[in-house]
Amino acid sequence: xxxxxxxxxxxxxxxxxxxxxxxxxxxxxxxxxxxxxxxxxxxxxxxxxxxxxxxxxxxxxxxxxxxxxxxxxxxxxxxxxxxxxxxxxxxxxxxxxxxxxxxxxxxxxxxxxxxxxxxxxxxxxxxxxxxxxxxxxxxxxxxxxxxxxxxxxxxxxxxxxxxxxxxxxxxxxxxxxxxxxxxxxxxxxxxxxxxxxxxxxxxxxxxxxxxxxxxxxxxxxxxxxxxxxxxxxxxxxxxxxxxxxxxxxxxxxxxxxx
Amino acid sequence: xxxxxxxxxxxxxxxxxxxxxxxxxxxxxxxxxxxxxxxxxxxxxxxxxxxxxxxxxxxxxxxxxxxxxxxxxxxxxxxxxxxxxxxxxxxxxxxxxxxxxxxxxxxxxxxxxxxxxxxxxxxxxxxxxxxxxxxxxxxxxxxxxxxxxxxxxxxxxxxxxxxxxxxxxxxxxxxxxxxxxxxxxxxxxxxxxxxxxxxxxxxxxxxxxxxxxxxxxxxxxxxxxxxxxxxxxxxxxxxxxxxxxxxxxxxxxxxxxxxxxxxxxxxxxxxxxxxxxxxxxxxxxxxxx
Amino acid sequence: xxxxxxxxxxxxxxxxxxxxxxxxxxxxxxxxxxxxxxxxxxxxxxxxxxxxxxxxxxxxxxxxxxxxxxxxxxxxxxxxxxxxxxxxxxxxxxxxxxxxxxxxxxxxxxxxxxxxxxxxxxxxxxxxxxxxxxxxxxxxxxxxxxxxxxxxxxxxxxxxxxxxxxxxxxxxxxxxxxxxxxxxxxxxxxxxxxxxxxxxxxxxxxxxxxxxxxxxxxxxxxxxxxxxxxxxxxxxxxxxxxxxxxxxxxxxxxxxxxxxxxxxxxxxxxxxxxx
Lengths: 258, 289, 275
Ligand SMILES: Nc1ncnc2c1ncn2[C@@H]1O[C@H](COP(=O)(O)OP(=O)(O)OP(=O)(O)O)[C@@H](O)[C@H]1O
Ligand SMILES: [Mg+2]
Description:
Order of helices and strands of chain C: EEEHEEHEHHHEHEHEEHHH
Number of helices of chain A: 10
CATH topology of the domain at 8-89 and 168-177 and 198-246 in chain C: Rossmann fold
Structural class of chain A: mainly alpha
Bound molecules: adenosine-5'-triphosphate, magnesium ion
Helix content of chain A: over 70%
Strand content of chain C: 15-25%
Mean pLDDT of chain C: 86
Order of helices and strands of chain A: HHHHHHHHHH
Largest sheet of chain C: 6 strands, mixed
CATH architecture of the domain at 8-89 and 168-177 and 198-246 in chain C: 3-Layer(aba) Sandwich
Oligomer: heterotrimer
C-alpha cells in the first residue's frame, strides 16, 4: 500500500491539491460573514500588509514596464510608420494583459509568500491551535481576512500599476522619443474602451487573480506540515502554483471574457 | 492602539489611491475622455466602402474632433453602408454639400470620418444627410510602403559590390538595407573599421538590376524613424559613368544631426495624423491633433 | 452550583475513551472523573497521552470511542458553535506557550477579551495589567513574544489563560522552565484562582513536590489507562507497582521506558541471542 502511495504521480497529487483547495475555499467563504462581523479590523490590518506594503514594488515595476514597452513598441511601430499608435498599444497591452498578470505575479512573490510563511509558522508554533482554544475561529480570524485582503488589494494594486505604466510609457514616448503629446493621448483615448479594457481587464481579471493567489497562499500556509522544511516548501509551492494558476486562468479568461 | 489607527489610516489611503488610479484610467485614458459633454445631433452619410470604420470612431473637421460614429448598418437593398454620425451641437453649421471621407490615422491607426466643408448656404440639420462621400482608398497603402523601411531587395539577378567610407556609421550593420528613392536596391555586406584612415569602410551589395547608378552619386547613412534601424541611402548624381563592381563611392554623408530633422519629418509625415497629408497627395483637411 | 443534579460535583466525566493514533492505542477504555472546583493533577510517563487527553477535553481531538463530558455536554458530539461556546469558558495553557507573535505581551493577554467582549479600553487595560501583575510581568507588557525567555513566555501564556476567569483551566506543564521564585508564585496563583473564584484546575505536571502543594487529587495514567489515583500526599506510597516505579524513577517495572519497538539486538544487526 505504501508503494502505491509513492507511485501516486504528480497528476493525482495535483488533482488532490486542487480538490482540497476548492473545499478550503468553501470553508473560507462560509467563514467570511463571521469574519466580517467580528474581525473586520483584521482584514484592514491585512490589507495594510499585503496591499499598502506592496505599493512600492508595484509602482516601480509599473513604471519600468510602461517605459520599456514604449521603447520596444516605438521601435517596431516605426518600421510601419505607426509610432503614433505607441500610446494606444502601451495602454491596451497593459490594461488587458501585462497589468493584471505582472501585478499578480509580483503580488504572489511579495505578499503570497509572506501569507504562506506566516500562517505556516503560526500553525507550527501552535498559534492556530491557541486561537481555536480561545474560541476564536482561525478560519474567520486568520484565513478569511487574508483572503479578502488579497481579493481587494490586487485590483487596486493593478490600477496603480497600470497608471504608473501609462505614465512610464508617456515619459519615454513623449518626453524622450518625441511623439506628439496630443497624438499620444488622443489615439489612446480613441481606442481604449472602459468596459472592454479597463473594467474587464484591469478590474475583473485582477479580481480573479487576487482570489486565486490569496486562496493558494492561505491554503498552502494552512496545510503546510508544521516544520521548518514544511513551511519553506509550502512557500515555494505558493509561488509555483500561483504563477501557473495566474497564467492558465489568464488564458481562460481572455478566451471566454473578451 | 495608536498602532491600530495607523494601519487603518494607511489602509484607507491605499484604497483611496487605488480608486483614484482606477478613476484616472477610466476617465483620462479611455474613450470616456472623448464623450461629448453637450447635446449632439445626428447626420446620415452613405459610403461605398467603410474599410475598418467602427462605431464610436471619431468624426473630425480640420483634424478637430467634433463627434463620433453612432451606428453602422447596411442600407436595405443596396450594397451601401449607412453610417450615422453623432455631432456636437456646437458644430451645427456644416454646409449640406460638405464631403465626408473615411480616413485612417497612420497606417495602423483606427479609421475615422473626416468632413470637408462645402460652400452651400444651407446647413445640415438633425437627421439630415451628407450626400457627398468618399470611401477609404487603397492609396494609403502605397504611401505606407513608401514611408516604411521595407525589406531589403531580394537579389534575384545577382549583385555587384561597391565601397563607401563614412566617418560615422551610427548603428549601421551588416544586413541593413540600401535604398534609392526609398526603394530597397541592395544590402550592406560588411562594416569594417579602417584604423589607418580613422573611418569605416562599408561594403554594399547592389542588385544587378540597378546598374545605372552614376559614379558621382552620394551615399548617406539615414535612419528610418527616430530610433528605427539605419540604412544607406543613395542619392544619384549627374555623371555619365555608372558605378561598377569594386568601385568606391566618393561622396558620402555620415550619420549626423541633420538626420534628426529628416527623421522627425518622416515620423510626423507617416505616423501622426494621416499619411496622405505627408505626401501632399490628397485634399484631406485633417491635420495633426 | 446546581444542587439538583447529583453529577454536578464532577465537571469532567470520561467514560470508555479509546483513541488510536498512528497505530498506537493511546487510550484504552479510559475512565476518569475530574471534580468541580478542585485542583486535579494528571501525571504519567512522557508520551503516555497527557497532552492528548487535554486535547480531547477541549474538543481539538476526537476519540475513536467513548464519551468526554464537560459540564454535562459530550464534547465529541458538539457542533462548532456549541464547542466554541464551551471553549470560551475554558482557559488553556500550552505546553509551548503558543503566544501570538503578531502582538506584544499586553495584546496577547488582552486577545481573548478583545475577541469576546466589547469592554471599554480602560477596563481591558485594568484587567490585563492585573493578570500580568499576578505573574510578575507587568513591566514586560510592551515586549514582543520573541523578546521573552521561555519561563517568561510561559507566565504570559498563563496570564492569557486566566484573563477571562474561566470555569475551567487546563495547564499543560505549567512549571517547566520556572525558577523557584516564579514557581512559588504560580503555585500560589493556581491556588488563589481555585479558592477565591472556585475555578476548576487540571494540571499536567511531573513535579510531585509542586503537585503536593496545590492538587487535591492526582491521576497517574500509563498504557492508556488510569493506573492509580488518590491524594497527592499519599499516592507515592500506596504500594502499587505503578506508583513505585513512576515515583521511584525506576527503569524496570510495568511502565515501559522504551517506545514500543522491534527487538534491539535485531535492529542493530546482531543475530538473535535466543531467550
Ligand atoms: N497528532 C498525532 N498523530 C499521531 N500520534 C500522535 C499525535 N499526537 C500525539 N501522538 C502520540 O500520542 C502519544 C501521546 O502524546 P502526548 O503528546 O499526549 O504525550 P504526553 O503524555 O503529553 O507526553 P509529554 O509528557 O512528553 O508531554 C505519543 O506516543 C505520540 O506519539
Ligand atoms: Mg505533553
